[in-house]
Amino acid sequence: MMRKAIGIDLGGTSIYGGLIDEKGNILKRSIRDSQAQQGREKVLERIFQVIDELIEGEKVEAIGIGSPGFIDVNEGKVLSIGGNIKDWAYTDIRGELEKRFKDVPIFVENDANVAAICEAWLGAAKGLHSFIMLTLGTGVGGGIYSQESGIWHGKNYQGAELGHVILYPNGRQCNCGQKGCVEQYISGNALEKTYYEITGRKLKGKDIFKKFSEDEYAKKAVKRYIEDLGTYLISIKNIFDPEAIIIGGGVINSKEYWWNDVVKYYKQNCNNPRGTTILPAKYLNDSGMIGAAKIAFDNI
C-alpha cells in the first residue's frame, strides 16, 4: 500500500493543499483564500480547514508545509520575517498544528524551497546538477539547489531570500524593512504597483498583462517588468553560474505575455548567457504542495 502525506503550500493570496502519494500524484485537493491581511489566527484557521478536508477518512503518514518567510526547519517555526502574511513572524507553525493533529508528524520549510524540491524531484529540474528557483507570486521567493548539498538554507535559515536582494537602491519600501527589494519590482503585486504609479488606477496583474497590446500604460508597466526581471536573471547567472534558473509562482500563468521578451533581454544584455538555461517550472501552482509532501516523506 503506497503511503500518503498532506502537502500544504501557504501563500499571501491562497492556500493550496493536496493529499499526495509517494510518487507525487495528487489524490485529493483543497484550496482556500489565505486571508493573509487578517493575520495569524485567521491564516491558521484556514490551514486547519484545508487539512481537515484532506485528512478525512484517510491514513496520513505526515504533513509538510511550505510557508513564506525565514523558516527554522528544525523547529518548524517562522523567524523574524514572515513574508506577505500579517503577524506571521515568530509563528510556531508546527506547535500550532500539533495541538490539532496530535499523532501526525509535521514538517515546515520555506515556500520557495518546497517548490524547488518538487521541481528537482519530478519537474523541470529533474536530473540537473544545480539550479536556482525563483517563485514570482504575491512576493518573490528563491531556492538554491545542488546535488551535493540539496537545498541551501544558510547559517541562520535566511539563505536564498532572492526576493530581498536590492534592485533599486532607496527604491520602494518593502515589507521586510529594506527599500528597493527585487520583490517590489518583479512580483505580481509589483506590476500592479507600477501600473498604479503610472495611471492612478488599480488593476490585477493578470489583467495588466492581458491589456498589454491595447493599453499604452499597461505596455509601459510590462516593459519595465520585463527589463527588471531580465536584469535580475543576469545577476543570478553571474553570482551562481547554475545549470538552470527555474521560474515558477502565480505570475508564470501569464507567461505568454512576457516570457520570450525576458529571455531575449537576458541573452542580449548578459556578458555570457551561455551555460545557464532559463526554464519555466513544470508544476506551477502544484509545486509547493508536492514539494511539501516530499519533505514530509523524506523525514519520516
What does this structure look like?
The chain is an alpha/beta fold and 300 residues long. The chain folds into two domains: 4-114 and 285-299, ATPase, nucleotide binding domain (Nucleotidyltransferase, domain 5); 127-281, Nucleotidyltransferase, domain 5, CATH 3.30.420. 35% of the residues lie in helices and 21% in strands. It has helices spanning 40-55, 93-100, 111-121, 183-186, 188-199, 205-210, 216-240, 259-269, 287-299; strands at 4-10, 14-21, 26-33, 62-67, 71-72, 77-78, 106-110, 130-136, 140-146, 150-151, 244-248, 277-280. A five-stranded mixed beta sheet has the order 3-2-1-4-7. Strands 10-9-8-11-12 form a five-stranded mixed beta sheet, sandwiched between helices. Strands 5-6 form a two-stranded antiparallel ribbon. α7 crosses α8. Belongs to the ROK (NagC/XylR) family. It holds the Pfam family ROK.
- Please write the CATH class name of the largest domain: Alpha Beta
Task: Supply the helix-strand structural class.
Answer: alpha/beta
**Mean of pLDDT:** 95
Please list the strands of the largest sheet in the order they lie side by side.
3-2-1-4-7
Largest sheet: 5 strands, mixed
Named CATH topology of the largest domain: Nucleotidyltransferase, domain 5
The number of helices is 9
Strand content is 15-25%
